[in-house]
Amino acid sequence: MYFLFIQCLCLWLQFCRCLEYLCRYGSPAGMNIRDNSYRTPLVAAAQAKIPGHVQRLLMAKADLGISDSQGRTALHYAVLYNSLPCAQAIVETSPNDINLIDTAGQSALHLVCIHGSQQLLQYLLSISSCHLNLQDKTGNTALHYAAMENRLDLVKMLLSKGASVVLKNKGNITPLQCSLEMGFDECSKILQTF
């Protein structure tokens, strides 16, 4: 057990030294180098939930718009791995990137509602450039996903900010109909009040 801890600590320190070297001496192109899954150092830092590394890479002008093989950016990963500090660092650097979509047409807002972070949703909704009713490739909005997942707090938050209850997905289904089909009575009642 102790050996594993030491091994992890050594890998961590090596990663930190590599990052510092990359930021200090690397070219802008090197800052955006990709691995086999097309992830950049910025995406890796967001995925690892290390806001200090995210901020350091952003200060070194890492490109926020570069996506991986699934079209996901560093913000997508910050949301997927439930890192509010990483998401804040990214959005504060480039607020308009909040609506970038992956290959499924999903923005950070969609992913928050699928995975259920109330803090992240509250933060994203506080950004004026956030498109509340953005539809993904299946036509689902963030409200559709919150309703499908029976995330009552998220549904209430989205509705309080003006999310549309009448938008239909490609299956011609509204968020209320999603909730009814899933048998989520309380969620359905909330949606019916709007």
From TrEMBL:
Residues 1-18 form the signal peptide. This is Serine/threonine-protein phosphatase 6 regulatory ankyrin repeat subunit A. SUPFAM superfamilies: Ankyrin repeat (SSF48403). ANK repeats lie at residues 138-170. It comes from the Eukaryota. Keywords: ANK repeat, Repeat, Signal. InterPro entries: Ankyrin_rpt, Ankyrin_rpt-contain_sf.
